[in-house]
């Protein structure tokens, strides 16, 4: 009787504990509800490395201004409203020739901008394809000693180490000064290259170099590619820069992208050698969308280079043969394979296997295949597979093709934009 | 209440840097919070914690620097104000703003004259005219409710233990002659005394914020600040 009195409530208590614990575990394990559009959308984080005044903020504002509408592309970019307000404020400040340039970014203004690439499907429905994260920060964090009691610099380095792509911003103003024999300009340029080298040498993600304020170098040569070739030769004469390009060139594409956030007829150097707006300046940004457009194609080009060709070809062929579960499932399976096989670069994007599969089908090419050949091959493969893909996948693949196309156009127009170690 | 002037500003070549900071933070190499928690814009007061955990309140303003540009031709802005360690000002008196500005001007001129040779200047405190905000205890957080199954299970376990103890105690022995001991009552034997009614601390007019000032909790601060709790509780409703 005593045992019953003690054991009965204990037994009921144990039962209650077990039932309650199982229910709590099930609630935690249930995935959060996501809309169909949000599910499977990866975010690629980009960090632009540039000292103070290199043009990080203006590039960002100009890029958003240009990409917020489709303008002949299959995609456009949106951002959270409070970020849009800031970006528009900066762009307005730049565009107004009666106002000063925007002031420099402070440490307290460090923030993440998130750009969502969207596209419209054939039915007119809006689809989210991917996101791009861009870190805005004070350039002095890269060049000045860390302030005691601040963690901003250490946080920045962590972000750099985990980025999907790095953009090294080379100030066109400093190149101008250096080419003009200005000692201070040459010293500042050297300082920024040294900083970039130390941060990029160990990077395992795609790296690109962006020459900002390209409009200040327009008098170097009439022809754009010849101008770029001359600047490229000047940069490659720096041993550290050359070593950096060589170190990366064997594993991944390294680009040299000239951009101008304002265009050729907006600003010039005044008598003091400072960049001043022209009273009747016309804003015509150039190539500001290319650095971000190149991120995904360059990530996949690196993955393609790093993987065993035979195994990759087999995986692609299997996807294009459309396994009995259908092309969409086959592409997801391909994406899963890539996330595992590509190592550190794609592992964090493993949950987005469908995206990875689509990107691989669009962006991977046969050895020696030219861009046009790749396009025709994909068109042939798509003609059957596309009938079975849903609208979202079709729209996403079109965007990925467009991103690659943007890069191809740049390379076609400016062959010198693809850096190798053989210069 | 005391305030310590501070200044964060850029130079022609150097990016935004701390030019003047409270002496106690400079001594402890703990002034990085000033750069991290201030940004150009309208006047603000923010609560923050330094890297060493020191709680502080920063009241600051942004002002353009006339006739000086950076090496890229961009205008300069300085962020200046004062730091309090004892509490936040309820409203900032313009006299205090002026005092802070006067304290940092010469430091900024010295910085612009020799940016590379600059070292952070420790500031001395001055007595604020701004009234201190009366601190009220942080609102009590209701404890997280336990799941019903856990409460039920706990009650049953307690019941089982008590029943077992009672049975063990009540087991008759040879030395005892008499009836079974009374079962202990689980109900409290003393009626609860009436809880003292809380003194309602209605906000006083002086608690209202100065126009143009926003009290912003810094993103890095964790939860409610540990304020000294006066013997009052917030008004209900």
Report on the architecture of this protein:
- The complex is a heterodimer of chains A (423) and B (237).
- Chain A is built from 16 helices and 10 strands.
- Chain A has 423 residues and is of the alpha/beta class.
- In chain A, α2 (56-67) crosses α3 (81-95) and α12 (309-320) runs antiparallel to α13 (327-341).
- The model of chain A is unreliable at 29-38 (pLDDT under 50).
- Chain B has 237 residues and is an alpha/beta fold.
- Chain B has helices spanning 23-27, 32-37, 94-113, 148-170; strands spanning 2-9, 17-22, 44-49, 55-69, 75-84, 121-123, 126-127, 200-201, 215-217, 233-234.
- Chain B is elongated and about 95 Å long.
- The relative contact order of chain B is 0.20.
- The interface between A and B is large, with 45 and 46 residues.
Mean pLDDT reading of chain A: 85
Question: Largest sheet of chain A, if any?
Answer: 8 strands, mixed
User: What sequence of helices (H) and strands (E) makes up the elements of chain A?
Assistant: HEHEHEEHHEHHEHHEEEHHHHHHHE
Number of helices of chain B: 4
> What is the SS-derived class of chain B?
alpha/beta
Gyration radius of chain A, rounded: 25 Å
What profile does the largest beta sheet of chain B have?
Answer: 8 strands, mixed
Silhouette of chain A: globular
Give helix and strand order of chain B, one letter per element, not per position.
EEHHEEEHEEHEEE
**Class of secondary structure makeup of chain A:** alpha/beta
Number of strands of chain A: 10
